[in-house]
Amino acid sequence: MLRTPTGGAGNGTATADDRPMSIGTVLVQLRDEFPEVTISKIRFLEAEGLVEPQRTPSGYRKFRRGDVERLAQVLRMQRDHYLPLKVIREHLEAVARGEQTALPSPDGERDLIDGSWTGGQGRATVARIGRTELLAAAEVTESDLDVWESYGLVVPAADGGYDAETVTIARLVADLGRFGLEPRHLRAMRAAADREAGLIEQVVAPLRRHRNPQTRAHAEATAKELAELSVRLHSALVQTALQVRLH
């Protein structure tokens, strides 16, 4: 859920919702629902025409409440429906024209979406997607995906499909590539992730072997919580290491 700044209302003055916001403030508001969003991501969505913040005479971005809501819509469509930005942009333009449009989902079904967007937080449309859907959702080429698979960054299932989370991985690999980080540079991250997953598996293995369905369900919840803590620790360690190197 987006954080809503508080402010006076009904007194004829501008409320906090009406005040322009910096890109840093927008990031803070979005991160409650989208913890992986970055300033670079917001700038990229602007460059792709998904949001058009105002600019001060000195060139600083100033976002309004409507801009933040639009960014949230875009991020939900990417997260919940794995849609390429072109499709999202066309849909939002149609909504702005007052049209009610059908938004395709990767499994071929169509979800009727209006301007109020009702996608639930964290809800995945499908558990498995095909190669074509992955390429479209991550907006990458066949050759990109082939290289990433050769380095073990993206791993298809036995049936040739991909877990929905692979879309996120592909997008992140592509984003890092724009900074000059090639797949060969990311192998260490993959190896570290495998080691962390192995450690978590050791913790929950006794619970997963239990016959009680509730205990096995608790194992899955514990694994998820441990994974989230691991990601937060990794992020904090990287930030600390950077501070040491940059100061």
UniProtKB/TrEMBL annotation:
InterPro entries: DNA-bd_dom_put_sf, MerR-type_HTH_dom, MerR_fam
Pfam families: MerR_1
Record domain HTH merR-type: where: 37-94
Keyword DNA-binding: yes
Keywords annotated in UniProt: DNA-binding
Signal sequence residues: none
Name the record gives this protein: MerR family transcriptional regulator
Species this protein is from: Streptomyces brevispora
